[in-house]
Design goal:
Shape: flat
Number of strands: 10
Helix content: 25-40%
Largest sheet: 4 strands, mixed
Structural class: alpha/beta
Number of helices: 7
Radius of gyration: 19 Å
Length: 217
């Protein structure tokens, strides 16, 4: 079990190691496995990278994100420019179905609306706009409307878990209600947590995942 000081140092080291992050702009506080991130960053892409880096560190049970994005004047763009750039980014991404997702920009914050058949398409849309110049945040409101029978969902998820994360498959229970999947159990790291969640989202027919899996370190 790491002490608070060890956990803080490990998170700071991970932030320093990631080339996409200016670690000097991020404050780290650790207490009982809960890590709080503070500071001002120059882009939403960097904020996202900071969150993912902290989650990679063993011993992090939860994150409190108190980071804000403050763009330098040279990187500011009008909402019209951001919305146009987002629309083109979606059009040029082969994983995003044509005409299914509509972006809206307000004060640099992009909101995505629409419906797709697969979760990977929903995630691809967010990834396409996350790194655009002038973006301060992204709200992904795209709905997943599956076209397969719910009866196949649990079987597909269980098979994916056994292929991708065999050890975790034995410790995770899967409950399916229509297109909603609930996961319960315990894993040993955030990487295993993400593997379990990714397997659930990748199954055809899944529109909602409630992940009640605990990270036990």
């Amino acid at each position: 079990m790491k002490t608070d000081a060890q956990l803080r140092d490990d998170v700071q080291a991970e932030l320093t190691w990631d080339p996409a992050i200016k670690a000097t702009n991020v404050g780290v506080i650790a207490k009982d496995g809960v890590v709080t991130l503070t500071g001002h960053l120059g882009s939403y892409a960097e904020k996202y990278a900071v969150e993912r880096a902290a989650q990679r560190v063993k011993g992090v049970k939860a994150l409190a994100v108190e980071l804000s994005v403050k763009l330098a004047p040279a990187y500011e763009r009008t909402d019209a420019d951001i919305a146009l750039a987002a629309e083109r980014a979606l059009e040029w991404n082969v994983l995003v179905p044509d005409g299914k997702i509509k972006p809206m920009a307000e004060n640099g914050w992009i909101t995505l609306n629409g419906e797709v058949e697969w979760e990977y398409q929903r995630r691809a849309a967010e990834t396409a706009v996350r790194n655009l110049l002038g973006v301060t945040g992204v709200s992904n409101l795209v709905k997943v409307t599956p076209q397969v029978k719910p009866s196949e969902v649990e079987k597909n998820i269980r098979e994916a878990l056994e292929r991708q994360a065999d050890r975790e498959a034995k410790a995770v229970s899967i409950s399916v209600n229509g297109s909603k999947v609930t996961l319960r159990g315990k894993v040993h790291s955030w990487a295993e947590f993400n593997a379990v969640q990714g397997a659930a989202w990748s199954a055809p027919g899944v529109a909602t995942v409630i992940n009640d899996v605990l990270v036990e370190v």
